[in-house]
Amino acid sequence: MAKGEGSGLDNERKAQVSIDGASIDLPVLSPTLGTDVIDIGALTSNGYFTYDPGFVSTASCNSSITYIDGDEGVLLHRGYPIEQLAEQSDHLELCHLLLHGKLPNAAEKTAFVNEITSRRAVSPAIEAMVQQFSAGAHPMGIMTALMGALAAEEHAGIDITNDDDRQRVCRDLIAKVPTLAAITYRQGKGMKFLPPRDDLNYAENFLYMTFAEDEDYEINPVIARAMDRIFMLHADHEQNASTSTVRLAGSTGTNPYAAIAAGVAALWGPSHGGANEGVLNMLDEIGSVDNIDTYVGKAKDRDDPFRVMGFGHRVYKNYDPRAKVMQDTCHEVLNERGVQDNETLKMAQALEKIALEDEYFVEKRLYPNVDFFSGVTLKAVGIPVEMFTAIFTLGRTPGWIAHWDEMVGEAYKIGRPRQLYLGETRRDFVPIDQRS
Ligand code: SDX
């Protein structure tokens, strides 16, 4: 992909909007890669807003972190293709890349990994808080609460205008989110919590803190590598709903842990990060390959709210490059687990084949997204379905905090969208004894 001729925020090109005979010039800004944008600021001073429910056509900010080409199925993190990163790099290297714009050299990587390792433990107050939840509490509600608790515990002394302070917060969040996920899982299982082990890498330590009965727990290197790759595949995805939530919350100058808590809450939704849990629940509901045609029919029925979870995407109108890597990882995990004829995977593959050949899905350009095979993979690892989106949270935290840091590290304005008002015009109050 050739580097574009993007001139960024200074451009001579203009778009013209003509309304009731008046013409308004709007600057056209060109990116390094991707779609030109029209700076609509001048519309307001001419008495107009734009209208774009769901932000389908709106660039909310400028960013240099991640680029997605939905038609070509391209995902670049600071210019590097996700396929190459997933194959040759690891999650903490990717975290460094997202935060600092470069792959770390050996010394930088050692220092970064050591700092993350040193920050894994959470306070007794956080551990005590998670133990207040009932066994049936949903892990994403717990993760949202725990991120808020970190905001409370860590608030004193954070200066978001200080680069070093922001970096400390970024690394602290990357270090602690696996611990939050692990204690959330163990609370649900009634298991005592284990302290982090500094001799294990990021993914190994997560598996240990989550599943180990004791210090003798044996790490499966294939499973650990698969988990590390799953974290990478979820790390960042430009201005998706949860990242946009983090940016909007962060634009008020709020505590960064609190801004991430808002992102966790947004990710939980079944249209977003909750889709991986939704895929498994859907496959359980379908029950057998024999029922797939019926459910594909329901998905095509506009009067039926049923959707094929893990299919479709706002941006990818071709395949999601993460889905292919995830499918390969799924096969690796199933082979390692000695699971050849996994009924759930068979149903997923049958559903994928039917959907990709069905004209409804072809015409609407609906392809498997990252969530479609991640659920089958996580289930094979031994992660319970209700924990799937907590794993997504673990992977996406570096992306969220990198976008927060990118925004807060430069001049920024509080996000304050306007609206198309369709309510009542002005009317006087009516005393209760005069109301119908
Ligand atoms: C993630 O934004 C990101 O980058 C997100 C993400 C990330 O890494 O952050 O990639 C992670 O959230 C992936 C998406 C996970 N969600 C799902 O798998 C849930 C199922 N998918 C859909 O809900 C839907 O495809 C969305 C929400 C993902 C995208 O919705 P859009 O872009 O708003 O598209 P739409 O809802 O307007 O759908 C367009 C048409 C509609 O039909 P018509 O009204 O035109 O007749 O396609 C249909 C929809 O009904 N459609 C589906 C469908 N997805 C869209 N029909 C059946 N099954 C589906 N899954």
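^ s-citryldethia Coenzyme A complex. The domain at 1-59 is CATH 2.20.28.60 (Rubrerythrin, domain 2). Residues 237, 240, 271-273, 275, 299, 302, 307-315, 364, 366, 369-371 surround s-citryldethia Coenzyme A (CB under 6 Å).
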